[in-house]
Design goal:
Structural class: alpha+beta
Helix content: 25-40%
Shape: globular
Order of helices and strands: HEEHHEEEEE
Distance between the termini: 35 Å
Number of strands: 7
Length: about 180
């Protein structure tokens, strides 16, 4: 019965993930390309503490709506705190086009003790072999990794979310989506 539930959740997760990607993220990404270019050139930038690490300063757009859409509460509008270069902020947007949306309810979730899963219980970031399908409410994520490569698809839900979330885990602020291929 558990495998039937997991299969239905996997199917639902694929449909929900594609709906969010196409209906929400794609339009914001397409509109965001010219907006990010213009913002990188003309928007006022301020220095604020990172949402994830208050001791680390990051660059952010002064306009809160612009920062919500094109910014990154964790890493700032550039990948490092250094001198300003227009194309760097624009390239960062191209890599992370909807980064702050992972904190937005309805398209994001938080780690939950109600997380269910099948597969591996522990996931190490170093290429230790594992696989799991995990879900919490309508949000579903799948991860597979071996010693050299891995994939993460759907929401970045983790089986350990049912037990604890580390204080240094950025996902405690919001679990976003992924369509990643990783190398170890």
């Amino acid at each position: 019965m558990r495998y039937l539930e997991a299969a239905l959740m996997a199917l639902w997760g694929l449909v929900f993930f594609l709906a969010v990607e196409v209906a929400i993220f794609l339009p914001l990404y397409v509109l965001g390309i010219p907006a990010a270019w213009a913002a990188a050139r003309w928007a006022r930038v301020i220095v604020v503490p990172s949402m994830m690490d208050a001791d680390r300063p990051i660059f952010a757009y002064a306009n809160s709506l612009l920062n919500w859409w094109l910014g990154n509460y964790e890493d700032g509008i550039r990948p490092e705190f250094s001198w300003w270069q227009d194309k760097t902020a624009f390239q960062w947007f191209l890599r992370n086009p909807v980064c702050n949306l992972r904190f937005t309810p309805w398209i994001s979730t938080l780690p939950s003790p109600g997380t269910r899963f099948i597969g591996s219980d522990q996931v190490e970031p170093d290429g230790t072999p594992c696989h799991f399908l995990a879900w919490s409410g309508p949000f579903v994520g799948y991860r597979y990794q071996n010693t050299t490569w891995g994939v993460w698809f759907g929401w970045k839900i983790n089986p350990r979310d049912a037990r604890f979330v580390s204080t240094d885990d950025y996902r405690r602020w919001g679990i976003g989506t992924a369509a990643q291929i990783m190398r170890f």
